[in-house]
Amino acid sequence: MRALSNVLFVAMLATSAACGGSAAGPTSRAVGGACTSNSDCETQCLSNQTFPKGYCTRPCSKDSDCASGSQCVKDDFGNICEVLCSTVNSCTDFGPKFACDPKARVEDGKNAMVCRSH
Fold first, then answer.
1. What is the pTM of this model?
2. Is the CB of residue 63 less than 8 Å from the CB of residue 105?
3. CA distance 93 to 19
4. Which end of the chain is less congested by CB atoms within 10 angstroms, N or C?
C-alpha cells in the first residue's frame, strides 16, 4: 500500500510540474504563452510583428536563464528566451503563421530552431 501511495505522490508532482511550472510552450507564463501585458507572464510580455498575440519571455545571457524547452537566442529585441522546435508542426499551437526558424544562440552563436511568426 505504501508503494502505491508513493507512486501516486510522484505522479501528482509530475502532473503539477507539467501544468504550469517553468516549462516553455504556447500556454506557458514563463516562455511562449500569449499575453497582452507583463502581468500575464512571469517576467515580460513581448508584443510586435513577430509575436502579434504577445509572447511571454525573459531576457537572458545563457540557456540556463530560460525555462525548460526554450533557449537563449539573439533576437532583434535583445537576448531573449524562445521556445525550441524541430518542425513547423511543432509550432502550430502558437498560431497559423508560426514556423520553426533558426536563431543564433547567445552562448555559442550556433543556431537554435525556435517558433516564430511570419
1. 0.79
2. yes
3. 16
4. N
